[in-house]
Amino acid sequence: MASKQLRILVPVKRVIDYQIKPRVNKTGTAVETTGVKFSINPFDDIAVEEAVRIKEKNKSLVESIHAVSIGPAKAQDILRNCLAKGADTSTLIDSKDVVLEPLAVAKVLKQVVEKQNSNLVIMGKQAIDDDCNNTGQMLAGLLNWPQATNAAKVEFTDNGKVNVTREVDGGEEVVSASLPLVITTDLRLNVPRYVGLQNLMKAKKKPMEKLALKDFSNVDLEPRLKVLSVEEPQPRAPGVKVNSVDELVDKLKEAKVI
Amino acid sequence: MLGSRFARQLVRVAALRDSRCRSLVVRTALTGHIIPDGRFYSSKIQPRLTSEAYPYVKRDPSFKKLTNEDVSFFKSVLSESEVLEASEAEDLAFYNEDWMRKYKGQSRIVLKPKSVEKISKIVKYCNEHRLALVPQGGNTGLVGGSVPVFDEIILSVSNLNQIRSFDAVSGILKCDAGVILENADNFLAEHGYIFPLDLGAKGSCHVGGVVATNAGGLRLLRYGSLHGSVLGLEAVLPNGEILNSMDALRKDNTGYDLKQLFIGSEGTIGIITGVSIMTPTRPKAFNVSFLAVDSYESVQKVFVKAKKDLSEILSAFEFMDCHSQALTKKHLPDAPYPFEDDYPFYVLIETSGANKEHDDAKLESFLESAMEEELVVDGVVAQDETELKNLWQWREMIPESSQAEGGVYKYDVSLPLQDLYSLVEAANVKLEEAGLVGDAPKPVIKAVGYGHVGDGNLHLNVAVREYSKEVEKALEPFVYEFVSSKHGSISAEHGLGFQKKNYVGYSKNKEEIKLMKDLKQHYDPNGILNPYKYI
Ligand SMILES: Cc1cc2nc3c(=O)[nH]c(=O)nc-3n(C[C@H](O)[C@H](O)[C@H](O)COP(=O)(O)OP(=O)(O)OC[C@H]3O[C@@H](n4cnc5c(N)ncnc54)[C@H](O)[C@@H]3O)c2cc1C
Fold it and tell me: Is the ipTM of this complex over 0.85?
């Protein structure tokens, strides 16, 4: 790699806002999306924040932050917020209504990485719509790069290494890798900032490249899974109020949980 | 304070767990010390008995003291779970103390009837035996109206908590008075409708309670007052009669509009048991922007501009001064604050409408030109629903934050818009002159101002370390005189309760007061409903 500076790529996905309760459509084939609020996947928001913080902490370390989203044309709203928060450039890959599986996404992203000459990818560990938690790992595999998943802390050492703290059962695990690297973000990594008005206006002038899936015609986008049906989970039984600790204990015993 | 500072993290953790979480989680996390039954206190300091703090108020000897026979009668009407008696282990503090922990009554019994008929029997009995009653809803009222002053029986409507019917064509909701506001709103949300009133206490206050206080809240600007949206009421009169006007008609000009009298009557002429209310369709798209401005002058200019540029999608316009934000920041140290710098004033703007793209475009061009015209010095826009809720908390958490250090003197006034903030400045000067403001042990932390600019309604909160006569003397009647001199109202939306009973004359003339007293006398000749309060 020519320069030691970071060229960070942050892939972001537009998903149903996580405050909104998703509903299954009438035909039982998918989640209803019309008239539903969409926002940036919260883990991706954390990824953007982390990239910007790395840059703010050490300006000379970062050459560029590029945000990319594969999704409908409206995904430009979330890209614009990324630009407002501090990404320098962005790409929208218009996928129309096509829903891509993680492997296809990873293949497209691989080409973006190559085109952008990125040496660090920071992305959400999963998207809250399908909860797959695959794309980062697959992208690292396809690129043959190391991966540090579920990051709770990211540090750059003087000798050019990246230390990533991961939360694991019973404690923390610190992994170390050199660039290039794929990092996937966990909740505790940071708390994203709000989008400032001034920056939002400036972001309008920042570049947003527009591509379509057909620009990736050499990638096999065919789904490998077939959705048979989509169903709502069983509704939870309503809770009961107890009047005393004894009654609580009785109920718990009845339910065979103690 | 359980959780509030972690609200944001909490949401994210919840998002991780099951990908989705309901707004309820956030709301409850934002509302302070949660105690069983969902209510919360905002201060840890033990309140004094009202009878001790206000020794000039004397118990009316014409009221009978509760006897064993009375209790037996109540038990003959009500089941065991509908009667709570004070005992060594249970002082009924939950019902005797108000939300601010400023007032504390000494009631020995709480009745929680499960039907309107039972309420009717009890009220009739109390009237015949001259037993004084306090109607109680969610007990979130801010003027000491919902708790007894002495030994009044507490009549809680919390067990009347069913939705009666909903017409998805007209949007008319009929429900029991004890339905919690947030539950009503969640129910309506399922049907694509919204409760036309929203306020910080929504997780605890009742539909009947907000009608009884004629609460205004955060969306009055958009949906108007309850005097317009409430279509009918069911109430138990002091003699035990049930007045039913639940038939909800949008238009009905047959005689006096009796229900209007109960809206804002604060439990003094009847117990509201059922409410019919017109609900609007729920907007599909909400936006929230939090702006920093450099003067109160600019707050007004931004308001005028917002009305013009955002017109029909503007649903809330709230302002806050820097002092209120300083207290809130202190109270929520870990919540991400929208700005790095401090500014003199802040404005929260909410838009809601049917079409997100349309609203976004409107809001964007409004914000852009407000920045260009330098009306606004800085600002943020919520990019998702969680940020939207979190931005709201910088407004909604002010009441709790103002009293986190001990207590708060609250004044809720209407003033001509140009004079709105001058009251806060005058109050600070007055308190400074009296040498009451400063670091501990001075009693006053700061007088802060915020409120519903859109409705000409200011909340002056004097944050104190403890309630003291000195502070009260500096503020009252000073605040009321100030408001009166500007021809404002000493009670914009919180009501009169115990706090403002003696100050009505600052906003109403003799004839008005006489007519009110006549009405009270007519409905409640024995004065058993909510005595020592209101008028
Ligand atoms: C955090 C917070 C924010 C608030 N924000 C606002 C705001 O923005 N705007 C605003 O207007 N108010 C606001 N309030 C105050 C508001 O008045 C109350 O929250 C609400 O209206 C009271 O409802 P409640 O069910 O708790 O009634 P309570 O507090 O129980 O009672 C209030 C009064 O109504 C009477 N009452 C209650 N239920 C009945 C009934 N069924 N029949 C007859 N009388 C009854 C009581 O006797 C009492 O006089 C706020 C309060 C809090 C704590």
Answer: no
